[in-house]
Predict the structure.
Amino acid sequence: MKMLHSRISFISDRRIGPVAFFCAIILAMNEHQRARYLRQMIFSNIGEAGQEKLLGARVLVVGCGATGSVIASTLARTGIGYLKIADRDFVELNNLQRQVLYDQDDVHSRTPKAIAAANKLRRVNSSIQIVPCVVDVHAENIEELIADVDLVLDGTDNFETRYLVNDACVKHNKAWIYGGAVSSYGATFTIRPHESACFRCIFLHAPPPGTLPTCDTVGVIAPIVNVIGSLVSAEAIKFFVGSGERNRGLVNIDLWENSFDVLEIERRADCPCCVKHQFAFLDDAHDGAAFLCGRNAIQIRPPKKSALDLAQLAARLQPLGRVAQNDYLVQFTLDDFDITIFPDARAIIKGTEDAGIARTVYAKYVGT
Ligand SMILES: [Zn+2]
C-alpha cells in the first residue's frame, strides 16, 4: 500500500487531470475494500483518496482497556492498515462494564487483552494487519514499539506511561494523542512535537502517587470512555486523511454536568521535554515493580529480557497451589496471593500493595 501511495502522489505531482487521478485511485482499491468502506468514502472529507491514506496508515494503541478498546475497534473498522495493540493485562469480570472488545469467554479463559482484542478485530476486519503485543510498556521497549508507526494513541490508565510515551514521541518526532477518562469526565489533547504543546507543557510534574482519582477510587461510567475514545479516533482519522479542523486545545468533557470546554495550551518556553530535550522518563531506569492502581496488585518485571517455558513453570508450581495455564500465561493461586506469570517472566501479583512483599513472592515462586 505504501508503494501505491507513492505511485498515486507521483501521478498527482505530475499534475495529471482530475479524471485520470480519480481513475488511478479507483483501480488501486479492490471491490471488497470499496464495499466495506463505502459509507465513509461517501463522506466527502474522506472520499476514496482519504480511504487510501487510511489503508496505508500505521498506528500503535498503548493500553487496550476502556478507551483503548474504543480506539482499536473504531480504527480497525475504519481500515487503518496496520494496527499494533500493546497491553500488559488480562481480561477480568469488572472490565466488561465498559471495555467493549471483551466478553465473558475472555474472562473465563483469562485471555490477555491484546490477544482478545486482536481475535475480535480480525473477525471484524481480516484485511488489515493487527499486531497484538502482550507487554508492559516501559522505558526499555517504548522506542522499539513506536518505531514502525506514524501515530501513537493513548489507551493507558496512568500518567507514568503517558510521560514515557511523550518522551519517546517527542524524541522521535512522532505525533501522539492523549486521552483519559475517569468518573464521568475525561480529556484529550493532540501532541504534534515541536508544533503543539507536549504533555509536559501541560502537566510539568507527575502528580504524587495516590493523589489522582482513578477508576478504582471514584469509578467510571462507560459513556465517557466511549466519548473520549471516539474523539481520539476522529483526531487519528483527520491526522491521516489530512483534512478537517484539528483539535488544537485540551478538550475537557463532563457528561454528568453536560460540560464541554476547550482550553488553549501554549508551549512552555522552558519545557524540559520538547524544548530542552531532556527525556527524564525515557532515561529513568525502572526498578521493575509497578503498583497497579486500585487492584491490590503489584507487577514485577525481571531486570533482564527473559523467556519462560510456561509448561515447565506450571509443572513446577503444581504441587504448591492451584495452577491454571493457557497459551499466554500461567495463573498460580496460593494462600492470599493470585500470581499471573507471562512468558517474558513478568508477573502480576494480586493480594498486596507492598512492592517488597511482591518481590519476595516473585523470587520464591517465579525466580529471577
Ligand atoms: Zn513540552
The first strand starts at residue 58 and ends at 62. The first helix runs from residue 2 to 13. The two ends are 44 Å apart (CA to CA).
